[in-house]
Amino acid sequence: YLNNLIDRMHNGMIKVITGVRRCGKTYLLFELFGNYLRDELGVGDDRIVEVALDEEANRGLRDPGVLDSYLKSKIANKTSRYYVMLDEVQYAISDEELRGHEPPRLYGVLNGLLRMRNVDVYVTGSNAKFLSKDIITEFAGRGDEIHMYPLSFAEFMTAYSGDKYAGLSE
After folding, report:
1. Alpha-carbon span 64 to 69, nearest angstrom
2. What is the pLDDT of residues 61-89, one digit of tens each?
3. Beta-sheet pairing, 14-18 with 143-147
4. Closest CA to 32 of 66, 65, 5
5. Using 50, 70 and 90 to split pLDDT, how confident is the model at 95?
């Protein structure tokens, strides 16, 4: 999955990481991809904007207008490349917006980031409404989905460092 993100860098689209709950979307984005940017490409922390919208400390950023202002305040100049990573973006979509006929305001925030040529945007989300037809319709030609699956048992065992046979009876 990391290579999928790397291959899609700077493609002018919003990279949308989808998948079931607890399959590793946040870890992929903030840890693996964030470390790749820092360690392999030398991107400074001042050019990586990470926002976990499910954290209580970021409750105020769930308002799309506040989020938009915050993100633009972090993008200090027009010449440096910035990486915006938004985790659990469904928290920035209200129940009223989900029931309405207009696109959620969050889509306007994301579209605004797309228009900034020096910003590369990555989002994760779990909400079925956000991840279904809405994202496809609103970002047709501008969204690039990376769908994650949980590790298979065989994949898990390749990374497991404990005794693989502990607890098995003879």
Report:
1. 9
2. 999 999 999 999 999 888 999 999 999 99
3. parallel
4. 5
5. confident
